[in-house]
Design a protein that fits this description.
mainly alpha, 111 residues, elongated, 3 helices
Length: 111
Amino acid sequence: MKPSTRDDFTEFGKLLKEKITQYEKSMYYASFLETLVREVSISLEIDDLKKITNALTVLCSEKQKQEKQSKAKKKKKGVVPGGGLKATKKDDLQDYGGLDEGYGREFEDFM
């Protein structure tokens, strides 16, 4: 196939995508794409490279938002209504019937 029109390139892109995404489960897929994109982008003008970079940045931001939302939904399931347990009573050593005699006071006059 030798694409020459916009529609030809669109069809060519679809065919390439189908062929390449067959291997997306491979552990080498991400590094393969990185190398491929770098190699095919070498001859591009700086403005075209900026457009591609912006498109990938937007895609990355969208993926991060989706990931954040899915993590937030998972965390919300574990939230206890009312905020969970709250400590309202102070520790009172007098409840131990005088067993606290001098505890904590023996070092009061240190120095």
